[in-house]
Input
Amino acid sequence: MADTVTRVWPFRDAIRLSCFGLMRISTRRLERILNATGWRLGASAQRLLNLAQHLQQRRQKKRNAANPNALLVWIPKTAGTSLNTLLTNAGGQTFLSIQDARRYFRNRGIVTFGHISIPHLREAGIVTDEFYNSALKFAFVRNPFDRTVSLFEYSRLIGKIPPSMGFPTFCQMLKDHAYEDIGDYNHLGLSQLNPQVRWLIGAKGGLCVDFVGRFENFADDIQIVMRRLNLSVASGAIPHANRSQRMATESYYCDAQIDAVQHAYRCDFEAFGYSLIPRWELQRARPAA
Output
């Protein structure tokens, strides 16, 4: 059997990447991409990319200094990537690890810590009481039936579940709570499958946000957020990033899967006022005009 050859990513290509300003991705994410294609970062390329990331964070920190304090609680598969793109363009900062947050966050401006638990960040002293109390804290949520399908397709795409796993098995996993809790990490195993409300519960048990927008009303609700931050965005400039490739939501479900999602995410249905009856069943039950 032939030995596996790992190719070293050339230093000159690292220079090209940093010069083109593509350092919105972390070096850890870049390493995962390279490893998947049989490449690895050489020592010189790694140092250069770390420097480029450091300079990019410094530039973004300067831009962010004039922004009002705001904290996006980023729940997986609720248009967070699209929202974060808008906020980054306005100078907001994104930290996807405790280490980067400790190094670069100065408790001012617009920030998101990805899917890291906010109570963990407060306990660690990374988010101070002064910033937390003064910041506009907001999040977006999504109908659990629709979000479950998006989580299923996304988890298959990134290899968190086997490509051969069917939707019925996935829904049973949710019902059995077969996933890790959220914590002081962006994600661990299948932690992105947690109910949405888990990201929004504060240290005293209540919701830790001032505004909850809806995925289903994203264009209007993002305008509310941007106005409160004294920022503006044209309706046509709102991106839809990280979109899952999928069929119509109702095509995934039969009675057993509906029951599993109702059971697994009952707290989300109740907290955010979503109907336990799927949208397509409500539409069928309406009398014809």
Observations:
- The domain at 65-285 is CATH 3.40.50.300 (Rossmann fold).
- The longest strand covers residues 136-141.
